[in-house]
Amino acid sequence: MLIPLGTDRLPPRRAITTSVLIALNLLAFVGMMVASKSGFSSLEETLNTGAVSRSAFRPWTLITYQFLHDPGGLGHIGFNMLFLWVFGQAVESRLGHWGFAAFYLVGGIAAALAHMAASPAPAIGASGSVAAVSGAFLALFPRATVRVLLFFFLIGIYHIPALWFIAFYIAIDIFSQFAGFFGRSNDVANAAHLGGYLFGFSTAIALLAIGILARTDLDALFLFKQYRRRAEMRAATREFGSGFDGTTSSTPIPSSISRSDVDSTTAPPPPLLDEHAEVRRTITSALRQSDTDAALAAYQTTPPGFVLSDADQAELGNRAVAAGDAETAVKAYVALLERRGERNTGPGGSSDEIRLLLASMLIRRLARPKDARPHLEALDDRPLSPEGIALRDALKAEMNDA
Question: What is the pTM of this model?
Answer without folding.
Answer: 0.62
